[in-house]
Amino acid sequence: MNESTPQTWPDLAVALYDRLTGRGAEITYEAQGLEIHVPDRVGPDATHTLWKVSGSLKIRTSDGAE
């Protein structure tokens, strides 16, 4: 991996936004029965809450020039 490869989910989100902003991009994710265990904090003693997702999630970017 090189230095520009995102290492965390927030870094990945920022890198994706930076790359797509101003290009009128849209990313659509579709999920059926996706389960995500979301931690309440960082560390081995974190408690997790279960999120269930069915449907679509759309991410749109814009540079505000519209």
Topology:
Elements: H1 9-20, E1 26-39, E2 48-60
Antiparallel strand pairs: 1-2
Describe the structure.
- With 66 residues, the protein is α+β, with helices and mostly antiparallel strands.
- The protein has one domain (9-60).
- The protein has one helix and two strands.
- Strands 1-2 form a two-stranded antiparallel ribbon.
- The longest helix has 12 residues, at 9-20.
- The termini are far apart.
- The mean pLDDT is 77.
Task: Pick out its properties.
single chain; 66 residues; alpha+beta; two-stranded antiparallel ribbon
Short description:
It is built from one helix and two strands, in the order H-E-E.
Number of domains: 1
Number of helices: 1
Structural class determined from secondary elements: alpha+beta
End-to-end separation: 36 Å
In terms of DSSP E residues, the strand content is 35-45%
Strands ordered across the widest β-sheet = 1-2
The low-pLDDT segments are: none
The helix/strand series, from N terminus to C terminus, equals HEE
According to DSSP, the number of beta strands is 2
Based on Cα principal axes, name the global outline: flat
Largest sheet: 2 strands, antiparallel
